[in-house]
Amino acid sequence: MSEIATRGTKATNDIKDIKLADEGRRRTEWAERSMPVLRQIRERFAKERPLSGKRLSACLHVTTETANLAVTLQEGGADVALCASNPLSTQDDVAAHLVKDHGIKVFAIKGEDHATYYEHIRAALAHRADITMDDGADLVGALHMIALNRLDDLAPPVRKWVETLSAADRKAIVSGVSGSTEETTTGVIRLKAMAKDGVLQFPVIAVNDSQTKHLFDNRYGTGQSTLDGIIRATNLLIAGSTVVVAGYGWCGRGFAMRARGAGANVMVTEIDPMKALEAQMDGFRVATMEEAAKVGDLFVTLTGNVEVIRVEHMRAMKDGAILANSGHFNVEIDLAGLKQTAEGPKEVRQFVEEWRIGGKRLFVLADGRLINLAAAEGHPASVMDMSFANQALAAEYVVNNAKKLSKDVHRIPVDLDQEIARLKLQSMGVSIDTLTPAQRKYLASWDMGT
């Protein structure tokens, strides 16, 4: 750990190198230019200080866009601690910038190992937050294992720390959280399972369920950044190749659209008949993974589920097939099965590992982790502007409404969602029509005919 004196206070952090701060500042300022909605929220937060006196622990991808969110939360009065939500997604210069220039507690190093990743989550837990902010529910998941006394299910760095705490302290760490927010589909699925089982300890705002999040971040952000990460890692020509897209949710359809735009022949695999039908009518060839494995050149998983690509699929693939994942966790490609079956890995270039199975070469990108953040920079700032506007407003909403909210997963109010869309359109110089009185009356009536 390194101790950094910042703005007259002593903050404990774990980052790669404080000397990277200047580059992180320049890149964060560049991203801020494309985040006008968050800027307006930050300006209001600086005046009103709606988060004053609140400790906030965030487990998010440490990127330039996240830096702008963290500064917004700090301007709103929050005492912010930030750890990474993926071992490969941290931008080390950004982490340094937040520590040096803003005094924000950051625990994140790109490429950190499993133990360090959970040591950083432990540090965020030790911040004893009033509000938590998650991207994948790792922070909230750990809190609930503490609440349920399931210490054996905690990663060793967290478990060892919890075991040093008294029963009263353990209870206080959980009961002190008034509410949480969740950024991604994977996390929301986890949290809804907790709510269904009746174990959720506090209300959670599912930011991912906001229309201004999933319709744009998941579709346009994931679509572009996933393709960007694959091309940066491989220098692959997409045109003319057969790209297999596993999953046709908002992320999958966004990537399928971008791959087709780059000239690929796109196939889609699905388990949901409605989504499969939609993909078929969108002009994509829909097949099972067993069928697609035989013809694909590039396979990309975007499902949020485990073992989507298994060893039997890998055995059927062509020599030279490339496998990548853009789901939140590195569980969608059966890497454990691959390690037991194949020879390797051999690093052939950064973020590309070669495995040999049955005399054929397969190439796995970024150890099956989020390719758009491991090999590229994640989503463009313009789309994250809306996602993180949701996060900032969700934090404010928790502060104002936590006592009235049930211990369940809630979506952000529709009026806030609409306001984010309105502000985004305004920043783009786009005007839209409004309903006339006659139109309002017609839509509200049941007895007006043709």
Characterization of the model:
- The chain is an alpha/beta fold and 450 residues long.
- The protein has two domains: 260 residues, Rossmann fold (3-Layer(aba) Sandwich); 156 residues, Rossmann fold, CATH 3.40.50.
- It contains 19 helices and 17 strands.
- The strands form three sheets. It has an eight-stranded mixed beta sheet with strand order 11-10-9-12-13-16-15-14, sandwiched between helices. Strands 5-4-3-6-7-8-17 form a seven-stranded parallel beta sheet, with helices on both faces.
- β15 and β16 form a beta hairpin.
- α6 crosses α8.
- The protein starts with a strand and ends in a 6-residue tail after the last helix.
The gist of it:
The chain has 450 residues and is α/β, with parallel strands linked by helices.
